Amino acid sequence: MGSRDELIQCSIPFLREVKDMTPGAEMERWLNQKYGEGSQLYQDLARLIKRGVEEGWAANQEVDGPNYRRSRILEPMPETFQFSITAVYMNSTDPRRFKDEDDHDVFRGQYHGHPYGELNLVVPLDKGAELRGLQGWQGPGWTAPDPGSRHYPEVRGGAVIALFYLPAGRISYDFTAPS
């Protein structure tokens, strides 16, 4: 079995467990307590998605240059309880970064919305790298944006891979970003 198939197989029991839960702050806390950085699930998924980026099957399509890439690994299907699996790579060393309120270099991706929410595994590639979730900055662990939420994905402190599970594969870029 290749690493892509291994990642999918590793995801299925997790998706079975969360399929009837609603993304949001409560679920995010639960995910970080039960499946945080020290858990076997986190370790396995992080290892496999890193391998996917190295092997070129994950986060391999440039969105806006080499420091912002993503790819759909699997479309929604019955075996994944209609979740899709996607990976994104973002690196705050990109020349288009900006300074945040704490004077960190931040790279911002495309504004988008989550009609049904999102479950997002955050895998820093650089020590101290973080992804901004709706509850604040997240290093190794999870974010779980609520259904109907909209945001810019942002990273600081270096490179991050986000492995995300979308209910029904739904994500929308058809929103006007706030000014």
Automatic annotation (TrEMBL):
InterPro entries: PnbB. Pfam families: PnbB. This is DUF4863 domain-containing protein.
